[in-house]
User: What shape does this take?
Amino acid sequence: MADTIKGGNHAALWSGRFKEGPDAQAVEFETSIYIDERMAFDDIKGSIAHAKMLGKQGIISDDEAKQIVSGLESIEKDLTSGQLQIDYSAEDIHSFIEATLTDRIGEAGKKVHTGRSRNDQIALDERLYLRRATMDLIASLKKLISVLTKIAEQHTDHIMPGFTHMQHAQPVTLAHHLCAWAWSLTRDVERLQDALKRTCISPIGSGALAGSGLPLDREYEAKLLGFDSITKNSLDSVSDRDYCIEFASIFSILQMHLSRFCEEVVLWSTSEFNFINLSEKWSTGSSIMPQKKNPDFAELIRGRTGKVYGDLISLLTMMKGLPLSYDRDMQEDKASLFEAYDTVSSCVQIFTYMIESAQWNLDVMENACKEGFLNATDVADYLVCKGMPFRTAHGVSASCVRLAIEKKCHLEDLTLDEFKQMSELFEEDIFATIEPKKCVNARKTSGGPAEEKVLEQIKALKEFCAK
Assistant: This one.
């Protein structure tokens, strides 16, 4: 195996202005390479496009452009293979790559930065990274939606209580509930896709803040990088971090959804609910209580939501008082953005594994539908179908519930005579009407829990994931 190569001389790109170098503690404090190293390939991609543009415009010679591109491609290859290691003495990933390029190809490497600043370079790298990373997150989300859809498809006829205020409300199906989770995730996918439209705009060529006096072709460079267009104002281009904040906001909403799902998983795994049985692969025990089987992974996802929220607040706070254009405060954007992304990405994957391997206690769910008078609304609807105004029917149904409470029985255990004491409109068919599965399948409004409507949702979710 070839010896590992370490990058060469990494003097600060701005060092020419200073007679003496910065203090070692100052360098350690201001370096960002430990954070921005993940953008190495994005930085190389951007520099290759920049070199090609410089060559096309005659700002550098064709031979120099080819040398730069070849050198950058060799750096990319060696980083991928592990033959080249990042030198963490460099100030940032841009400095490391430029210095390594110059070590490899000589003077031509010093021309790669012609017509650009690190200000527009980092804005470009972040946008390239987000474009790449977001597609990975979207793929993970679609996988989770597919898993939820697959489970739902198996349980379109298995009823469970629906809740409001954490009280038994109306019967639904497990499939309907899982589809509810899935639909919220589709909105997260759509938000990510929509944010990409505003992110896939090239800032390169904006320079430090005022563009360049060189004949750069920003549109050509943007096209090489696969961007839809270019930014319209050079000041705004380098001072904008809206895209970081927007993605952190979307990550926060997504993490909130996962946290809500996990709250239900935690509740449903308790002895009191016993709706779900998590795999032992995705549970933990207790160091003191031998019987325990804890939903720790659901709790950890729920707990890490605060971290993602904190990253969003950090970005907003960082930007709130900054004048145009670039300020060094903005170097701190990457730590918050990357942490939020990493947290959300790992939580999506872990939740997928956890829910895919879970078992559902269907009999327990069905039996729970007998408690809490979930069919009380259906008693009122029955009377409405007989011609009674809903508000009156609501009161009659409430009276039936009170009688059942007094008798310590379910609504369906009342006799026909007892129903008729409340209204003469009740007939023998009331008992079939308020059977829980009949209640569910009567709700055939679009988006409702009736089996035929849930199957429509499942089909639509499959189509969404296939896009």
Summary: DSSP finds 19 helices and eight strands in the chain. Residues 368-466 form a domain with the Ribonucleotide Reductase Protein R1; domain 1 fold (CATH 1.10.40.30).
